[in-house]
Amino acid sequence: MPAELLELRDVGKRYANGTVALEHLSAKVGEHEFVSFLGPSGCGKSTALKMIAGLAPISSGEIRWSTVAGRDPASDTSFVFQEPTLMPWASVFDNVWLPLRLKGVSRADARADVAAALATVGLDQFAEVYPRELSGGMKMRVSIARAMVTRPRLLLMDEPFAALDEITRFKLNNDTLDLWQASRFTTLFVTHSVYEAVYLSTRIVVMAARPGRVVAEIAVDEPYPRSEAFRTSARYNALCVEVSGALQAAGATHG
Ligand code: ADP
To answer: Under a CB-based contact definition with an 8 Å cutoff, are residues 127 and 93 in contact?
Structure first.
């Protein structure tokens, strides 16, 4: 296990309306891991991510961060949502500038960092374009560039590719892995796709619903870069069967 970045200790979440979204969630995430939270709709994956981001208070348990001198984990975290959530009235450049702007960085001072972030997602030629002129996949790239512009230590991704067609999704899977390998941030990725979780992750936290909880943790001990050869390999297939089995076992006992 790499040096620890954060640990969820017996975390629970009960919403104001009484819904128990999560119960006894314990998991550790190491530096530069790519961990997926995998489970059916309603098992608390988004809730877990929101609590890690500090966007939702936890009801019980605790989230512990490793302390790295001079770095505040909250300001070191970026979030990519399922919807790209771009400002339609602002150019691609201005959308990516936003997190820096909120930190008080002027447009001129942000120029190099915004250009670099756009280059990492292959959109350096699109800085002056408006969101309506972009495809769904390109909008998601802008959203990823906006998350990368602050050079986060932790990237939280909540079903970022669920609304995209399969070819675009595969391409963005590869691009995400390239970015992750190049920049060495830690990724926490939420998905309900077994295939996507196995393709991307170093480790999969399998969850079940009602109440939301962890039912298995499966390491995907395969080297990177991963490629189409991995996607069609017997090993990939065997891992998908194993992960599906863990999901089904949980569903069968608490359906
Ligand atoms: P997932 O991301 O796995 O689909 P969520 O974290 O969105 O799961 O939701 C987990 C449970 O909490 C679900 O039963 C959902 O309806 C409920 N829930 C999510 N957000 C709220 C909220 N703001 N208020 C009340 N219940 C919520």
So the answer is: yes
